[in-house]
Amino acid sequence: MAVRSCRLLLLLLLLVFWLLSGQVLQTLSLTIGINYGQIANNLPSPTRVAGLLQSLNISRVKLYDADQKVLSAFLNTNIEFIIGIGNENVSTMTDLAKAQAWLQQHVKPYIPHTRITCITVGNEVFTSNDTVLKSNLLPAMQSVYQALVALGLDKQVNVTTAHSLDILGNSYPPSSGSFRQDLAEYIHPLLNFHSMTKSPFLVNAYPYFAYKANPNTISLEYVLFQPNAGVPDPNTNLNYDNMLDAQVDSVYTAIQAMGQTDIDVRISETGWPSKGDPDEAGATPENAAIYNGNLLRRIAMNQGTPLKPSVPIDIYVFALFNEDLKPGPTSERNYGLFYPDGTPVYNIGLRGYLPLMSSSSKRMANPLEILLL
Q: Which ranges of the sequence are coiled-coil (predicted)?
């Protein structure tokens, strides 16, 4: 009798744990931002992707364009969008009339049924060698902002751009973070714009890149959010137990060094590849699962950085799918959480399904359940 009671108690505890885990996962999924790239020839339709993201309860999506098929597929889904203006169109956007025309075509028709909350003008522009492009970035952002004001949308749609961490001249220790001197003439007025419009400063932060470049000197535990002694900042005595925090605080310090203290830093991309070339150290499914799994747990805990512990980091994970047409090393095509058929590349803590389309084009749930934990 006592043995049976113990077994029943154990089963009850396991059931409670399972239910609580489900609640944690549900809460976790509600806070995830995801990058939805489409440089591939085998991805599911946007309508099916909308179903997948809804089943995962992912409520924030970042695009690299303003694909009308995607925005139409997400009508009335309550999913929040960052949309993008590509580098090839930045110079065009310096013309206010053309910026207004772009908004009339790519934003106005979808609001409020598709929740567009941010427009990125260009991506990693300051890593380009194109001085004209760099010079046109801020005028383009200003034109898009002015066009939003004219449409009465400036209070609900931010204007920003996303930066590579290569814009930093110094990143260690975080308290000594600074922008490259050759970019100061561009970044200083850009920060004034962010301060004036209350828009976020976006960075694409990849501890993976640092580890790949120096696998013998950088601790894998440090970049994967695993237990480690941490790296102290000798100027502040703050201890950093992961590289992502250190990268974000370096950006905050660089911004403060230019006189701004009221600009939010947000991570527009971060992730870890599940496959790479022989010279791409650490690009494995195991490491990708550890990095993104720990990242999502961190998001769920609403943690800040050592420099700003009360300010949770806003993060968009890169990326939703593996993209088979991306150029560059093998890793570039293997950042996805999912394969194009909707199966997980590795398990990290979300549940959902990729809908199938019946012959009559009606949506039907795929019995495949994505269980990631």
A: none
